[in-house]
């Protein structure tokens, strides 16, 4: 009973930490969870994830750099960032509820899938050219800034675009490519 | 690849010398590396994330906005995050507000202090270390006169005998001034590399033209050890 109460308290705390915005960048770092919940925080997150499944939500882990091929170590988890995301996707008609125009989402889809097809990086100019084929120039420029600011894309000093942390947290890249190719 | 292996197989019984066998082994090793690279290429191509960029570009061009959004939202799981006020956070914010000093108090401007205008004497400026007692060139000229007196009829003086003083600090000051005597054409250095001796020779008149010529820097160490050695030699 005592053990159950302990986990119940920890799960509530984990949900508060993950749901409520604490920093400019969403999500919580593994080491923050470790400080707040104790070193068995991966276990607590797993229980929380099971609870969230009923609500079609999930605890998502984004590792620093590439995802580990095997079971992540505690050190890798401490450096990773944890978020709560939708589990099963979103009906497209609901996407506009998030304050995004259909043009903005279509542009994001194009930019992300183009970068994936170029093995993770593509010149900004190429991505913009592709978007300009269907969107007005001013909107392309505005949207690119928006995607970068939101953390979907990142740009280096050579104007190369890469997928950033938010894409890795929110987008199932494999599924996106499969869906595009199946059309 | 099969043909090459077959050829190697046929040639193998004819290989007699170790060199020939080593060459055969090398050929097999290179063939194996070709197969390994082909394997890696096939493995990469077969991963689900590999996509032909041209094929994908063509697909994207063909789809309309609605179709693109439908596909994307199926693979998109946006983050959930909340921003909400709570009663404790409101209470804390109220407490902060109560404790916060008014802006005109926090940003109080301190006007410049008004001081009655007056004249400052030269002595006061020297005392405040804004002006030196003597100007630098006056000091340099006096130092040059001293050099000429010390040299007398000998034309030159040993560098350390001129710069050396009772204290190390004073020695450093004199070495510093001596460097300006040479730079501004009041004196010159005479180096005797074989005997490792350095002399300083004053000019009768400052030679300004020297400053325009290509000058050579002469590094002279004036360390504490050297000063101590010089002092001991002088006492003997």
CATH architecture of the largest domain in chain B: Orthogonal Bundle
- Number of extended strands of chain A: 6
**Main sheet summary of chain A:** 3 strands, antiparallel
Fraction of residues in H or I helices of chain B: 55-70%
For this structure, the CATH topology of the largest domain in chain B is Arc Repressor Mutant, subunit A
Strand order of the largest sheet of chain A: 1-3-2
Shape of chain A: elongated
Which blocks of ≥5 consecutive residues of chain B have pLDDT under 50? none
- What is the string of SSEs of chain B from the N terminus onward? HHHHHHHHEHHEEHH
The number of strands of chain B is 3
Quaternary class: heterodimer
Distance between the termini of chain A: 53 Å
CA(first)-CA(last) distance of chain B = 93 Å
Major β-sheet annotation of chain B: 3 strands, antiparallel
Largest interface: A-B, 52 and 33 residues
**How many domains comprise the coordinates of chain A?**
2
CATH architecture of the largest domain in chain A: Orthogonal Bundle
Helix content of chain A: 40-55%
Low-pLDDT parts of chain A are none
Strand order, sheet with most strands of chain B: 1-3-2
The CATH superfamily of the largest domain in chain A bears the name: Winged helix-like DNA-binding domain superfamily/Winged helix DNA-binding domain
Put the structure in a nutshell.
With 183 residues, chain A is of the alpha+beta class. Chain A has 9 helices and 6 strands.
What do you see in this structure?
The complex is a heterodimer of chains A (183) and B (236). Chain A is an alpha+beta fold. Chain A folds into two domains: 88 residues; 90 residues, Arc Repressor Mutant, subunit A (Orthogonal Bundle). In chain A, strands 1-3-2 form a three-stranded antiparallel beta sheet. In chain A, strands 4-6-5 form a three-stranded antiparallel beta sheet. In chain A, strand 5 and strand 6 form a beta hairpin. The model of chain A has no long low-confidence stretch (mean pLDDT 87). With 236 residues, chain B is mainly alpha-helical. Chain B folds into two domains: 73 residues; 100 residues, Arc Repressor Mutant, subunit A (Orthogonal Bundle), CATH 1.10.10.580. A three-stranded antiparallel beta sheet of chain B has the order 1-3-2. In chain B, strand 2 and strand 3 form a beta hairpin. The radius of gyration of chain B is 44 Å and the shape is flat. The chains are: A alpha+beta (183), B mainly alpha (236).
């Amino acid at each position: 009973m005592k053990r159950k109460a302990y986990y119940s308290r920890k799960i509530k705390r984990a949900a508060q930490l993950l749901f409520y915005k604490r920093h400019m960048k969403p999500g919580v770092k593994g080491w923050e969870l470790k400080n707040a919940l104790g070193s068995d925080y991966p276990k607590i997150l797993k229980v929380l994830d099971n609870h969230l499944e009923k609500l079609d939500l999930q605890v998502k882990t984004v590792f620093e750099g590439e995802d580990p091929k095997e079971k992540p170590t505690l050190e890798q988890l401490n450096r990773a960032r944890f978020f709560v995301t939708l589990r099963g996707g979103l009906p497209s008609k609901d996407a506009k509820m998030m304050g995004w125009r259909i043009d903005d989402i279509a542009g994001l889809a194009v930019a992300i899938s183009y970068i994936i097809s170029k093995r993770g990086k593509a010149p900004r100019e190429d991505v913009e050219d592709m978007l300009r084929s269907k969107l007005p120039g001013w909107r392309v420029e505005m949207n690119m800034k928006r995607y970068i600011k939101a953390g979907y894309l990142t740009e280096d000093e050579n104007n190369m675009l890469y997928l950033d942390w938010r894409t890795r947290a929110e987008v199932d890249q494999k599924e996106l490519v499969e869906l595009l190719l199946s059309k | 690849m099969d043909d090459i292996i077959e050829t190697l197989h046929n040639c193998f019984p004819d290989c007699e010398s170790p060199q020939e066998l080593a060459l055969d082994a090398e050929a097999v090793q290179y063939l194996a590396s070709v197969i390994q690279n082909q394997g890696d290429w096939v493995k990469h191509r077969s991963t689900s994330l590999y996509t032909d960029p041209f094929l994908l570009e063509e697909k994207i061009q063909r789809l309309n906005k609605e179709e693109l959004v439908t596909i994307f939202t199926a693979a998109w799981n946006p983050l959930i995050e909340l921003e909400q006020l709570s009663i404790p956070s409101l209470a804390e914010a109220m407490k902060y507000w109560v404790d916060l000093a008014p802006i005109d108090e926090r940003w109080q401007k301190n006007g410049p202090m008004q001081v009655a205008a007056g004249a400052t004497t030269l002595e006061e400026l020297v005392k405040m270390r804004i002006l030196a007692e003597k100007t630098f060139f006056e000091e340099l000229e006096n130092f040059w006169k001293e050099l000429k007196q010390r040299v007398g009829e000998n034309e030159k003086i040993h560098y350390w005998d001129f710069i050396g003083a009772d204290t190390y600090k004073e020695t450093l000051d004199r070495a510093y001034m001596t460097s300006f005597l040479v730079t501004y054409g009041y004196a010159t250095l005479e180096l005797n590399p074989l005997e490792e001796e350095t002399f300083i020779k004053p000019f009768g008149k400052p030679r300004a033209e020297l400053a325009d010529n290509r000058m050579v820097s002469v590094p002279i160490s004036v360390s504490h050890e050297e000063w101590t050695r010089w002092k001991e030699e002088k006492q003997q």
